[in-house]
C-alpha cells in the first residue's frame, strides 16, 4: 500500500474531537550566567492535541522538541523553567502543579517514552519490580495483581516469554526489547496521552520498523505526541504535524497537507528532496546555513537568515496564523506570493 492510500484509509486530524491538551504560548527559559540575556529553548509554543490523534513534533536537533515535551511533564531540567504560557489537560492547568500532584499526572494522565530506554529504566532492578512499582503507585491493586498486570503489559507490546522477562534486568535485554519495556511502562497505567520522544532513533533500521509497527497497531487510536527529527517516521505514524524551528512552531497541518504542499520555506527546505508523496521514507536534506544557536538573539523570523524568500518584513516576527485549515508562521508562505 502506498503512503497516499494509507493516509486516505486513516481518520486523519479529526478536528471535531475533544481537546485533551491545550498548550498556549509556552516559553522555556535558561539563564546564561556569563551573558546578560537568558536563552529561550522554547519560545512561545502553542498547540492543541485532540482525542485519538497522533501529533508529530518534527524539526532539526536543537529546535526545542524535547524541551516542549519535558515542559508538559514538569520535567524541564534546572535551571531552566517555564516563564510564560499555560498547559491545560482538559480543564485542569498542569504547568504550575506541586510536585506530588505532578507525579500523579505522570503515569495517570501522561505517559512518556524516552529515546534511550536506559534513562527511563533503573539498571539495578528487574523489569517486573519496576513495572509493579508503577502499577501499585497508580492503581489500587495487590502485589500479585500488579505482577499479573505487569506480565500482561509486556505481553501486549510483543515481548516473547513475557513471564520470564519479569525477572530480567534491563542490561540483559536487547535494545529493541528494552524499548518495548519502556513502552509497556509508559502504557501500563493507561495514560490519557502518550508522549514518545525519538522512541525509535537509537534503534537499528529493522528494529525501528518493528517498533513503528507496534505503535501503529497497539496505539492506532491513542492520543499521542510523537517527537522525531525524521519526517519519514512522522509520515508513518502521525495524523497531524507541527514543524519546529528555533524554539517555535513554524507550520502545522495534517501530515498529508504538510508533505504534499508545505507552505513555510523551512518545511519546503526540509522536504525538497521528496519529489513524490508516495515515497515511503522521505529523507530530510540539509538546508544551507545554520539554525540560530543559544548565542543568537533573534528578533524577527528565526529562519530569515537561511530563507530564499526573505524580504524586509521578516525582521518582524511572524505569528503562527491560521490560513485555511493550516497554520503557518511566515510573511510570505507558499501559495500566497
Ligand atoms: N539542560 C540544558 N541547559 C541549557 N540548554 C539546554 C539544555 N537542554 C537543552 N538545551 C538547549 O535547548 C534547546 C532545545 O533543546 P531540545 O529541546 O533538546 O532540542 P531537540 O529535542 O529538538 O533536539 C537547544 O538549543 C539545547 O542546546
Ligand atoms: Mg530531543
Describe what you observe in this structure:
With 337 residues, this protein is α/β, with parallel strands linked by helices. A hairpin with a 2-residue loop joins strand 9 (240-245) and strand 10. An eight-stranded mixed β-sheet has the order 6-7-8-3-9-10-12-11, with helices on both faces. Strands 2-1-4-5 form a four-stranded antiparallel β-sheet, with helices on one face. Helix 5 packs across helix 6 (143-156) and helix 6 (143-156) packs across helix 8. It has a single domain (3-109, 191-328), classed as P-loop containing nucleotide triphosphate hydrolases (Rossmann fold), CATH 3.40.50. It has helices spanning 3-8, 65-72, 99-108, 117-120, 127-138, 143-156, 162-165, 175-187, 205-218, 231-237, 255-260, 265-270, and strands at 19-30, 39-50, 54-58, 81-89, 92-93, 110-113, 193-197, 223-228, 240-245, 248-254, 321-323, 326-328. Helix content is 31%, strand content 22%. The protein is globular. The structure holds adenosine-5'-diphosphate and magnesium ion (MG).
